[in-house]
Amino acid sequence: MNDWSPESWKTKAHAQEVKYEDTAALDAAVARLRELPPLVTSWEIEKLKGLLADAQLGKRFLLQGGDCAETVADCRSSVIASKLKILLQMSLVLVHGAHKPVIRVGRFAGQYAKPRSKATETKGDVELPSYFGDLVNRPEFTAQARRADPNLLLSGYQHAALTLNFIRSLSAGGFADVHHPEYWDLSFFKTAGVPEALREQYEQTARRLADALRFMEALGERTVEDLTRVDFFTSHEGLNLPYESAQTRTVPQWAGWYDLSTHFPWIGERTRALDGAHVEFFRGLKNPVGVKIGPQASPDEVVRLVETLNPTDEPGKMALITRMGSARVGTALPPIIEAVKRSGRRVLWISDPMHGNTVQTSSGFKTRNFDHVLHEVEQTFEMHDALGTNLGGVHFELTGEDVTECLGGAAGITEKDLDRNYASVCDPRLNYRQALEMSFRIARWMERRKNGR
């Protein structure tokens, strides 16, 4: 790694590069970011890496979820708590189905930058830069809002810090204490048209886990409060390299460089070029690193990515997040799994069933179908089983709010419902009910699979 530094990426081709007009202001913002305290710590990163190493061996399962693109306007206690709550509820259900611990990773406290398929957007006769997330510009379709503003890098850091502070306070204060039934609001089951059997199954799962925790307490010396304390880790796409590199530093406890803006950064499908700036930056990090893999990726390319990003084959370091689409996963994924398996490299396989299943309705809404999302997850499980590998996690775009952005699910959202509460500034998310139902469907599938059915 003698040829690497936190800024060596500047010598490479930079996909999705943001064009800042005021370079002096950019330099000032980056310099200030370098001085600010880290958002996460190296020992938290190393702890997560150890947990991911267990997941690579099938001893744990990863649940990763959150907004497509966070907004600073949603840095509110109610919004943050609802995201934390749905992730915890989903993980509770998955623990019950998988019979193994679940690693909880949120797409929050930094998911403020988004790649776009086109650099500009046109409305009528007006063409402006696309919205690249609140770390870069604003969603309003005006020249001022769409101008890349370096000060938004500092705003993103500040709102990420506020979000992390509240998440840590909730976790430390007992918010995540699953044995207290009053912490779980199940009232929506009774009003959302969800079958009574599903509500009863969730309540039964919660009761069983609570009983198991109390039984463990009776056998040992630890209290239920100790046993049920939950760790949450953060993740985001490391898209904006000035922001990421400014928070990358060495620490006294460990050798090497850590991106301390998040625990688990990933490289997107659009920025994973082997000779590109993002792979160059990520190859020098001690963080666990994910890479999104779409249906256009070749098996050889994926193996070379794994070798480049984790040359020493360190356990827990490398994750491949596949996003194929339900119609293509059956043909596109197996050759990639087989190639990585032949290489002997250790990776954590994660299924992202959201991005490959995005469609546009006749009325212009981007949406996803619940059944297509579920079908991709189930197919991915089946292919890993058939090839002797392990699917170790799932990655969802979701929210704890009652939005209407994805079709289907027990709540029965149809195309005519989309404009009722379509709140996403980018891609559609599963709402609270759909996300929880998704966890039940996956957990039931995992339990049947474990029992040979």
Describe this structure in words.
This protein is α/β, with parallel strands linked by helices. Helix 12 (370-387) packs parallel to helix 13. It is built from 13 helices and 14 strands. It has an 8-stranded parallel beta barrel with strand order 1-2-5-8-9-10-11-14, surrounded by 5 helices. It has a two-stranded antiparallel ribbon with strand order 3-4. A two-stranded antiparallel sheet has the order 6-7. It has helices spanning 23-35, 42-56, 77-98, 151-172, 187-191, 196-219, 224-227, 241-246, 277-282, 299-309, 329-343, 370-387, 432-450, and strands at residues 61-66, 102-107, 120-123, 126-129, 232-237, 248-250, 257-259, 264-267, 289-293, 318-322, 348-351, 358-360, 366-368, 391-397. It has one domain (8-176, 230-448): Aldolase class I (TIM Barrel), CATH 3.20.20.70.
At a glance:
The chain has 453 residues and is of the alpha/beta class.
Topology:
Layout lengths: L22 H13 L6 H15 L4 E6 L10 H22 L3 E6 L12 E4 L2 E4 L21 H22 L14 H5 L4 H24 L4 H4 L4 E6 L3 H6 L1 E3 L6 E3 L4 E4 L9 H6 L6 E5 L5 H11 L8 E5 L6 H15 L4 E4 L6 E3 L5 E3 L1 H18 L3 E7 L34 H19 L3
Parallel strand pairs: 1-2, 1-14, 2-5, 5-8, 8-9, 9-10, 10-11, 11-14
Antiparallel strand pairs: 3-4, 6-7, 12-13
Helix pairs in contact: 1-4, 3-4, 3-13, 10-11, 11-12, 12-13
Family: Belongs to the class-II DAHP synthase family.
EC number: 2.5.1.54
InterPro entries: Aldolase_TIM, DAHP_synth_2
What features would you highlight for this structure?
two-stranded antiparallel sheet, 453 residues, 40% helix, globular, eight-stranded parallel β-barrel, 13 helices, alpha/beta, TIM Barrel
